[in-house]
Amino acid sequence: MTKKERFKKIFPILKEKFGEPKAALEFETPYQLMVAVILSAQCTDVRVNIVTKELFKVVKEPADIREMKQETLEKYIKSTGFYKNKAKNIKLNAEMMLDKYKDIIPKKLEELIELPGVGRKTANVVLGELWNIREGIVVDTHVKRLSNRIGFVKNDNPEIIERELMKFIPKKYWFIYSHYLILHGRNKCIARKPKCEICEIRNYCKYNEKI
DNA sequence: CTCCCGATAT
DNA sequence: ATATCAGGAG
User: How many angstroms separate the CA atoms of A26 and A190, rounded?
Assistant: First the structure.
């Protein structure tokens, strides 16, 4: 079976399982979503939501972050991990948002990743979530792991993986498919001990063949 | 490539 | 105890 054929087998199974998943991150303003995604690095959405529930009571726009002391911000976000880096980046991010972008989050990937704390993964999520702009495939640790296990790629570099996946996955499925892989990676194809024996897509997975 | 770093599952 | 988690910056 070619990669494209296997994709066409796997996709409906995951679609049946996950449907149209809505955003797991909670927010009111677009700026809040960007902050939430920055906080979600190496951290679960559940944890981010616990933190932002309090933080977003006082932070709606970049100006609110400018007025907040960095130490105060650190206390709010401490439990998300990497809190000093994140706090510093969010402060710098707010300054650039105010000075350069006049509070308007840029809609171009190249501009978005210029903002402190915003890399390729974060930018893709923000664009997709806020404006349905799906220019790329979100390749995080889950998409990386599952793509290699399934046998879609043999590579560790997120940008190369993204390009390889783009070759055989129709563009309209890019965003939703990465979302499916992430969900499947969290509850079944977990990093340490994948549950191949109860996996719905095992018949189309190279990793399962080896076991 | 290394550092950042707390929470959670195993 | 330890691996791992919806990454990004230097």
Answer: 24
